[in-house]
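From the methods appendix. Each design record in this collection lists the discretized structure first, followed by the designed amino acid sequence. Records were kept in a plain field format so they could be parsed without special tools. The example shown here is representative of the layout used throughout.

RECORD:
C-ALPHA CELLS (63 positions):
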C-alpha cells in the first residue's frame, strides 16, 4: 500500500476536517478515494492539495 494513503477517519483528524467533508469532495470529483474490502483510503497529498485549493491534475507553474 502507498504510504501516502490514509484511512478516511485518520486523514480527517490529521487535516482538521470531518469525514463527511472528505466523502462530499470525492462525490464532487475533487479528490479520489481508494477502496479495499471494508476500508476506504484517501491520498494525503491530494487531500492537502484540495484543502489548499491546488488542482492536482494541473501542471506545475513555470513549465
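DESIGN:
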Amino acid at each position: 500500500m502507498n504510504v501516502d494513503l490514509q484511512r478516511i477517519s485518520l486523514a480527517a483528524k490529521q487535516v482538521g476536517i470531518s469525514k463527511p467533508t472528505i466523502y462530499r469532495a470525492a462525490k464532487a470529483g475533487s479528490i479520489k478515494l481508494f477502496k479495499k474490502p471494508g476500508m476506504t483510503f484517501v491520498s494525503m497529498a491530494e487531500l492537502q492539495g484540495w484543502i489548499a485549493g491546488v488542482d492536482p491534475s494541473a501542471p506545475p507553474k513555470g513549465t
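APPENDIX NOTE: Residues 5-52 form one domain.
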